[in-house]
Amino acid sequence: ALYYYYYDSSNRLTDIVHMHEYKKRMIADYIFEYDNQNNIIQMTTIEEGSNEPTTWKYKYNGNLKISEQAFDKDNLSLGKVEYIYSD
């Protein structure tokens, strides 16, 4: 498959898409959203063979990611990872 990468005006990756051969249209594999500090705050994925998106939401303390949580299409939590940093 041939993949296309799209960027916003700040040169941040916003979408990764490919041409779906059967559906004959572009399909988004990843969609990224950012905060004002250029941290990825949300990533939406659609797995191969599925039409159901999974949305990952990220939280930060400064530039350190402190958690990420996955949600299904109905915004129900699928799981969460929390990060603890030590000196």
SSE order and pairing:
Layout: E1 3-7, E2 13-20, E3 25-34, E4 40-46, E5 53-61, E6 64-71, E7 77-82
Antiparallel strand pairs: 1-2, 2-3, 3-4, 4-5, 5-6, 6-7
Give me a quick take on this structure.
The chain is mostly beta strands. It is built from no helices and seven strands. A seven-stranded antiparallel sheet has the order 1-2-3-4-5-6-7, with no helix packed on it.
Topology as a string of helices (H) and strands (E)? EEEEEEE
SS strand fraction? over 45%
Cα shape: flat
Radius of gyration using CA atoms only: 15 Å
With strands numbered from the N-terminus, the spatial order across the biggest sheet is: 1-2-3-4-5-6-7
- Largest sheet, strands/sense/barrel: 7 strands, antiparallel
Distance between the termini: 44 Å
Unreliable segments of 5+ consecutive residues: none
Percent of residues in helical segments? under 10%
Structural class: mainly beta
Total number of β-strand segments?
A: 7
Quaternary structure classification: single chain
Count, helices: 0
* Mean pLDDT across every amino acid position: 92
Model description:
By secondary structure, this protein is mainly β. The protein contains no helices and 7 strands. It has strands spanning 3-7, 13-20, 25-34, 40-46, 53-61, 64-71, 77-82. Strands 1-2-3-4-5-6-7 form a 7-stranded antiparallel sheet, with no helix packed on it. A hairpin with a 6-residue loop joins β4 (40-46) and β5 (53-61). The model has no long low-confidence stretch (mean pLDDT 92).
List keywords for this structure.
87 residues; mainly beta; 7-stranded antiparallel β-sheet; 7 strands; 0% helix; flat
